[in-house]
Amino acid sequence: MKKDGSDIYPISFFETSEWRPVVDNNGALVYSRWDYTDRENCLGSTFWTCAPDGRNPRSPQGNYPYPWDTFEDCEHGDHRFGQCDDAPSGLPMTQMQFCPIPGSHKYVFTAAPHHGESFGSLCMLDIRVPNDNHMSQIRRITPYEAFPESEAIDRSQYRYGAPWALSADLYLCNSWEDLVLLDRYGNEELLCEREILPIGYDPRLRLTEPIPIQPRPVPPVVAQQTAQGEDFVNADKTATIGVVNVNIHDRPFPEDRPIKRLRVLQVIPKSNPWMDLPFIGYATENTPRIPLGTVPVEEDGSAYFEAPYGKQLIFQALDENYMAVQTMRAAAFVHPGEKLVCVGCHEPTTESVSNTSESAQPLAFQRKPSKLEPECGPVEPINYYRLIKPIVEERCVTCHIEKDVEPKKMDHEDLRPYVYYYSGSMRGGLTTTGTHGGSRSRPGRVGASESKLSKILVDENHKGSVSNEDRHTFIMWLDANALRLGAFQDEEGQMRGELVWPLLDVEPCEQYSP
Q1: Three-point CA angle 488, 17, 12, nearest 5°
Q2: What is the pLDDT of residues 127-148, one digit of tens each?
Q3: Do 182 and 260 belong to one domain?
Q4: Could you tell me which of 136, 357, 406, 475 has the fewest CB atoms within 10 Å of its CB?
Q5: Bond before 278 cis per omega within 30 degrees
Q6: Residue 186 in domain
Q7: Closest C-alpha to 165, from 114, 122, 116
Q8: Distance between alpha carbon 184 and the CA centroid of its chain, in Å?
Q9: How does DSSP assign 334-349, residue by residue?
Q10: Rounded to two decimals, what is the model's pTM?
């Protein structure tokens, strides 16, 4: 917004919590995001940064703690709770209240519980240190205050919070109900004591958010590059996304499955407050999604395409059979007029590409941006009863009954043993078990690639009985987490196969016509 409070516009379209943004010494915004897309609990409440107009949100540290996946041959134990040999201590459940240190690239922050109050242990973050996906970039300032939940269990109140860095060595902060001056070794000196109320001590009532009234350097101004607000109302609102080379990654793709296209799916935010009412998929807290279409990937691995703005997007790298080799387990978005560029598909955070006169521009960047091409009929939300059930009833169930082959009934729940899906919440909970947890995808072992159903569809018994069109529809459904419903309302209508649009973030008449 402007200085007088006018001209307000959104700088984030994320579907879950984001909080306490501050401007760092480079003029960027840093904040915390609760990133729970397609993964279990306690994995993604960490450090994020973006331009002041919301462009290019990134998580350079901590968003993918181990275990990355929970297959039987998983390489790492659970770093969140320190229950493995390579993680002698737990990670902070939530990193919040970031404050830049004056004259430094470092930050102080509060290690807090993922559910609970915004207090805990204070730490320093240095993202220039090589990341070991554990504690290499984090140093504790308060060594005797354990990390809430991961190291200190069965507690409801925690000591420190709301740090304000005066320098690399001294910080104002909250300590229980008082304000103190803290040094880098954890020593503290009382500055302001909260008066004890007549009713006695109450640890929930605290002095907090200390900010010194003194001049400090003004961060550099970062120019706006989105077509939002009064000053940019007439600017080109076309948003594009470019990938330099999808094959730049930190977990190698299967060599026998070269990437041919990218699939773009839209994730739908929840429109009611009740957990798993209605149940969207096989796992707890799944979210509906809309396959918006696919775009080509050039021989050099590059892609360049127009993208809808103001929508939460997931990208999937596809092989020649339109089957996902890799899928995001976080969400991206673009603003009107934004030109978002990625180096690769989960490239190391310290890696870039050369930018010299000898370096050829990526092939996709040498042409106009591609437009999203719908995959299987009209663009609409994934709905088992509308997309998959007609196929199984017409082509599968009758044949299975005639040949006395299981399964003879193929409602959504009957297919659970034959699909692979991601958790939206808790491993070991009501429906999420075994291999479906973790924080990241293993290339080649996602969605349809990991499901028994996709292998059945191409075996000798089904090659001739399942059309290529129906097989493609099954693959798209499996890659989209094998969801049951496409919206959080009108469950009965969806079960009848009716087209029910979500209540949030869609304008079907304008944006979803092929």
Answers
A1: 95
A2: 999 888 888 899 999 988 888 8
A3: no
A4: 357
A5: yes
A6: yes
A7: 122
A8: 33
A9: --TT-EEEESSSS--T
A10: 0.92
